[in-house]
Amino acid sequence: MIESNCTREMIIAGAVAMAALGPFASASAEAADLPVKARMAQTVFDWTGLYVGVHAGYTRDHAAATLTDPFVTVSAGSPFSGLTGGVQAGYNWLTRSGLLLGLEGDFSFPNYLTSNHTVAMLNTPGSSVSELWDYVATARGRVGYAQGDWLVYATGGLAWTGGRFINTDPAGNEEKKLATRLGWVAGAGIERGFAPHWSWRLEYLYNRFENGGVRFSNGASYNSALEFQTLRFGLNRKLDFADGPDLKLKNDPSDTESDRWEIHGQATVIGQGYPSFRAPYTGTNSLTPARQFQQTWSNSLFINARLWDGGEVYYNPELLQGFGLSNTVGIAGFSNGEAQKSDFPYPHYNTSRLFLRQTFGFGGEQEQLGSGQLQLSGKQDISRLTFQIGKFPVLDVFDGNAYAKDARKDFMNWSVWAPGAFDYAADKLGLTYGATAELNQKNWALRTGYFLMDAVSNSNNFDMKVFRRGSYVVELETRYQLFSQPGHLRTIAWFNSVFSGSYRETLDNPALNLDISQTRRGRSKYGYVVSFDQAISDEFGLFGRWSWNDGKTEIMAFTDIDNSLSLGASIKGNRWGRPDDTIGLAGVTNGLSGDHRAFLAAGGLGPLIGDGALNYRRETIIEAYYAYAINKYLTFTADYQFVNNPAYNADRGPVSIFSGRLHGDF
Predict the structure, then answer these.
(1) Distance between terminal CA atoms of the chain?
(2) In whole angstroms, how far apart are CA 295 and each of 16, 307, 345, 414, 623?
(3) Confidence bin at 9 (pLDDT 50/70/90)
(4) Strands (E), 125-197
(5) β-pairing verdict for 311-322 and 292-308
């Protein structure tokens, strides 16, 4: 089901991109109705010059693999497929005759699903070997013919790929080896310039790589031949430099040269670590007591376009890499919002958002909506009804706290930037498929939504029993003025119908040996959130959240918290001459229900915690950060978190976590 969802995402992404971008180069008869910027796109595209771009596509691959150990040889042909994405850069020369010559290099990465980047898996009595590919890169020439805004071309050159080979012996011991293999690539494509500096392309590439092999210490040897076929959609931006030695760009690379679409981007690197701490014992899901350091890295584009009156499409491709502390376990209020529950040693592509939004205005007073990663700029009726359907995080729509919302910019701790006890629908990356409706008025808004839930706890697969299973959410937001400063109060109620296990039933049946999966059946889980943010002045604001769930059944998607209270403040740097800097300070206390704590005390495991034993105390966390604006595009943040009773265990900790974050956006 996940693979079919990925294929559907790629088809939709390509279709909406073509629909959104194609009209910019439409016939001159339509140009009179377009805004001034859009009419600029009618100029003939200049193909000569340097360009950078991104691509996403569908890759179908095949490997012929052989595994030999001292006793037996096995062989298999293995097809594999999935979404891929990456970046490219190149240079074109266009002759007077229309002949185009070019050079291009690119890197492509698989998506985060293991099944989509597993080349082969072979087993013998003495070995179990898996081959995974991590990236494909090419250095290619391009030869084509350009006629006006259109280009057709052929391409070919050198290719290489990097991968991992993992051998697991009968005792469960793993041996890993890295390898790079060379090959060649050939393909063809069409490209169209739709604005003075922008072009889209549709491209097919065939990669073939030489036989690659590794030998393991137990005497097993593995060899495979590998080929890739990729159909992908790309978006390129030409870079024009001003005359002079400083190589300054003539214009802003993010300028879309049209009023019909916008592009935003961000990159965030977080390094996080702690010194060793006290821990008399350590379990399967414990934070390791030895000192450690880990990092995460995310790169995102947000491509947003108007399709028709009130209709908009949003596409957010991302490259994600890195690890959370202890592989993102050991703390219920986990310390890094960028560290999801899937760990990536190399960048992985993901379609993090792909949704349609339709707004119906009811007339009357209007407001100006600013341009943002998830919002096209423009005027809209204050009184309006908005529908949204597709793939996106639940918290994009609900609990829009002004001061604690985005781990890339403000607080990093899961139970500070989100309501800790809100077990909202999500896969391991925090994403789901759903539909929402929002009725907006001047002083209040009412939102509701339905979302697909995980098939089982902490899963990347969704339960497709639509409406019978899923998550239902409703939120009332009220807006008010306190001492002439704006404030918001949000009340959220949610209900999950899921396939889940019961803590009490698991505890009451010793024969289950704490395997909660054996008690799974159709069950319900419910809870609520009360959230506020209040500006005290233009530079100072307060926020807080209280969240609760019934705590009877296993956590499905977020984290092991059944009740949570957080309070915090955000201060801008106006008073010390740094208006773009921010200081944040917050405290949170997290708790468990009686059944949940008894399950963990007996040795049970949750998605994020499980020390094997439990001396229960509330988990309390203090987080403080200073965000220093280097310039309008870059911000460096120093962050400190003090975690007392990590995973609710007074026998372990406390832990002091130090973080540095570099964030850039445009």
Answers:
(1) 35
(2) 34, 39, 10, 16, 18
(3) low
(4) 127-147, 150-168, 174-195
(5) antiparallel
Could you give the CA distance from residue 572 to residue 411 in angstroms, rounded to a whole number? 14
Distance, CA of 330 to CA of 657 (rounded, Å): 13
Radius of gyration for the alpha carbons in the chain, expressed in angstroms and rounded: 26
pLDDT at position 112? 80
Pick the closest to residue 420 from 593, 585, 630, 566 (CA basis): 566
Q: How far apart are the C-alpha atoms of 274 and 112, rounded to whole Å? A: 27
| Cβ pair 429, 352 in contact under 8 A | yes
Q: Do 656 and 666 contact (CB within 8 A), yes or no?
A: no
| Calpha distance 194→40 (Å, rounded) | 10
Which token pair is 195?
């604005």
Residue 401: count of CB within 10 angstroms of its CB: 24
Q: For residues 100 and 93, is the Cβ–Cβ distance under 8 A?
A: yes
19 three-class SS:
helix
User: What sign has the CA pseudo-torsion 595, 600, 604, 607?
Assistant: positive
8 Cβ neighbours under 8 A, 6+ residues apart = none
* Other beta carbons less than 10 A from residue 599's beta carbon: 25
Residues 518-543 have a mean pLDDT of 97
CA distances from 444 to 24, 429, 472 (A): 37, 31, 20
Given a contact cutoff of 8 angstroms between Cβ atoms, the answer to whether 409 and 663 are in contact is yes
Structure token pair of residue 615: 């001396």
| pLDDT tens digits, 281-326 | 999 999 999 999 999 999 999 999 999 999 999 999 999 999 999 9
The answer to whether residues 161 and 137 touch, using CB atoms and an 8 Å cutoff, is yes
- Which amino acid appears at position 6 of this protein? C
Alpha helices in 453-514 (DSSP H): 503-507
Whether this prediction's pTM lies above 0.90 is answered by: no
Residue range 17-42: average pLDDT?
Answer: 41
Instruction: Give the residue carrying structure tokens 């560290």.
Output: 339
Could you write out the DSSP letters of every residue in 574-612? GGGTEEEEEEEEEEEEEE--HHHHHHHHTT---SS---S
DSSP string over 32-95: TTS-HHHHHTTSPP---EEEEEEEEEEEEEEEEEEEE-SS-EEEEEEEEEEEEEEEEEEEEEE-
φ, ψ of residue 11 in degrees (nearest 5): -60, -45
Instruction: Name which of 188, 68, 62, 203 is nearest 133 in CA terms.
Output: 62
Whole-Å CA distances, 308 to 19, 362, 413, 584: 10, 17, 39, 41
Place of tokens 């307060």: 542
Strand partners, 472: 450, 495
Candidates 283, 322, 271; CA nearest to 646 is: 283
Strands (E), 252-331: 261-274, 292-308, 311-322
In 3D space, the residue among 239, 237, 257, 259 whose CA is nearest the CA of residue 249 turns out to be: 239
Q: Containing H/E element for 416?
A: helix 414-417
Output 70-76 pairs: Cβ under 8 A, ≥24 positions apart. 70/126, 70/219, 70/220, 71/124, 71/125, 71/126, 72/124, 72/125, 73/124, 74/122, 74/123, 74/124, 75/122, 76/120, 76/122
Return the SS3 of 243: coil
**Whether the bond into 654 is cis, omega within 30 of 0:** yes
Q: What is the pLDDT averaged over residues 170-192?
A: 91
Q: How far apart are CA 313 and CA 307, in angstroms?
A: 7
